[in-house]
DNA sequence: AATTCGGGGTG
DNA sequence: CACCCAGAATT
């Protein structure tokens, strides 16, 4: 009888090797935070899980400086989760316009309604329950639970990934699955006891934002002390500026769109974008033929634009009005602008409306569309 | 596991 | 211009 070699499962992966972790990591972070960390951000220590949640959603992929104004306006306009849940979706989108990642705003609204309808208006304290809510992933759930309720849970955001990559000498791009898994294990392993979770979590964020920064880390500029310097692997091996490894680069696709600016009686025609896709749910200038691959899409000619515009009224003059290029994270958009004068507007379907030029500020407009309008109109009107 | 979602800050 | 930011949802 010949022995049959046991087949190794193809899904089997080597257990990620964890670096040796110091036992005083959290102690260092907490002590540093209490003395040198940020203590006066408007969403800190409010004792209000609603405010913690709102700030965490706004801060996803968005810097503190960009969030401050939006947060203040949101709290004023929607002071409670009940107020937000009861608000029209359009109002929420308008308040979010300009912050980007508009799926966050739709999820925010849905989440508020679920919290009110199914949780009595109180945010859950269990991270696993929080994760089931729209817009809340593993890291955001941990941040909400830790800040609002003192629950011992690990975050892992861009700041923390950078601190870990340097402190523990983690090679590889942190967005890669295996690297990210390793970092989650580290994050769980270095957690302090529950009593210190708030200053610890805040301290990790503050370290990444003010000391262990991407461009000018304090250990190299000497501007301030880093509590991790004596244990930092990147510092020891002189690799601070190398870590974490950057995202592998790809060519940025080029796309083009013909943008119609139809005017009638000091009002402009706007169209609400579909919920899915770019600028989902936001009002925009109509795009004739939407966005096309720039290689085979040339600007639509005046006759095509006139044809498209006739759906919305009687068309007068059609004139080219310049070109704008906007770079997104994942593609570059060339916008060809055409101005259309409408002499007699027709009845409009849902998701279409004429907006007075003086009212444009009250509508949620994506930044490039706002820029196009500013280019075509007097800046004071937008 | 890889892609899709923005706008703005920073070097 | 390149790269990143208190990431999550989708495919």
Automatic annotation (TrEMBL):
It comes from Ralstonia condita. InterPro entries: A/G_AdeGlyc_MutY, DNA_glycosylase, Endonuclease-III-like_CS2, HhH-GPD_domain, HhH_base_excis_C, HhH_motif, MIG/MutY, MutY_C. PANTHER family: ADENINE DNA GLYCOSYLASE. Its EC number is 3.2.2.31. Adenine glycosylase active on G-A mispairs. MutY also corrects error-prone DNA synthesis past GO lesions which are due to the oxidatively damaged form of guanine: 7,8-dihydro-8-oxoguanine (8-oxo-dGTP). Belongs to the Nth/MutY family. Pfam families: HHH (PF00633), HhH-GPD (PF00730), NUDIX_4 (PF14815). Binds 1 [4Fe-4S] cluster. One of its GO terms (molecular function) is purine-specific mismatch base pair DNA N-glycosylase activity. This is Adenine DNA glycosylase. Residues 58-210 form the HhH-GPD domain. Its cofactor is [4Fe-4S] cluster. It catalyses: Hydrolyzes free adenine bases from 7,8-dihydro-8-oxoguanine:adenine mismatched double-stranded DNA, leaving an apurinic site. SUPFAM superfamilies: DNA-glycosylase, Nudix. It is an enzyme of class 3 (hydrolase). Keywords: 4Fe-4S, DNA damage, DNA repair, Glycosidase, Hydrolase, Iron, Iron-sulfur, Metal-binding.
């Amino acid at each position: 009888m010949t022995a049959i070699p046991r087949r190794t499962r193809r899904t089997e992966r080597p257990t990620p090797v964890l670096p040796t972790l110091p036992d005083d990591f959290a102690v260092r972070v907490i002590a540093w935070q209490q003395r040198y960390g940020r203590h006066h951000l408007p969403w800190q220590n409010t004792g209000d899980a609603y405010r913690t949640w709102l700030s965490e959603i706004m801060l996803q992929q968005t810097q503190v400086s960009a969030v401050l104004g939006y947060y203040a306006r949101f709290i004023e306009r929607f002071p409670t989760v009940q107020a937000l849940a009861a608000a029209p979706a359009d109002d929420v989108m308008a308040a979010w316009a300009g912050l980007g990642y508009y799926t966050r705003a739709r999820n925010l609204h849905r989440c508020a309604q679920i919290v009110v309808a199914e949780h009595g208006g109180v945010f859950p304290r269990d991270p696993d329950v929080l994760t089931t809510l729209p817009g809340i992933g593993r890291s955001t759930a941990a941040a909400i639970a830790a800040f609002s309720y003192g629950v011992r849970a690990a975050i892992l955001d861009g700041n923390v990934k950078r601190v870990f990559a340097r402190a523990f000498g983690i090679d590889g791009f942190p967005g890669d699955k295996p690297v990210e898994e390793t970092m989650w294990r580290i994050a769980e392993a270095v957690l302090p006891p529950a009593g210190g979770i708030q200053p610890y979590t805040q301290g990790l964020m503050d370290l990444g934002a003010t000391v262990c920064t991407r461009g000018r880390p304090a250990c190299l500029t000497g501007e301030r002390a880093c509590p991790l310097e004596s244990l930092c692997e990147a510092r020891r091996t002189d690799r601070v500026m190398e870590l974490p490894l950057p995202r592998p680069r790809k060519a940025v696709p080029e796309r083009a769109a013909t943008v119609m600016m139809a005017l009638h009686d000091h009002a402009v025609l706007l169209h609400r974008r579909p919920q899915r896709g770019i600028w989902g749910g936001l009002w925009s200038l109509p795009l004739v033929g939407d966005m096309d691959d720039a290689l085979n899409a040339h600007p639509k000619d005046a006759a095509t634009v006139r044809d498209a515009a006739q759906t919305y009224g009687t068309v007068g003059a059609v004139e080219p009005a310049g070109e704008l290029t906007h770079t997104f994270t994942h593609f570059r958009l060339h916008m060809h602008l055409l101005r259309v004068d409408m002499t007699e507007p027709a009845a409009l379907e849902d998701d279409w409306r004429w907006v007075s030029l003086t009212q444009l500020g009250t509508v949620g407009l994506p930044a490039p569309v706002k820029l196009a309008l500013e280019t075509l109109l007097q800046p004071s009107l937008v």
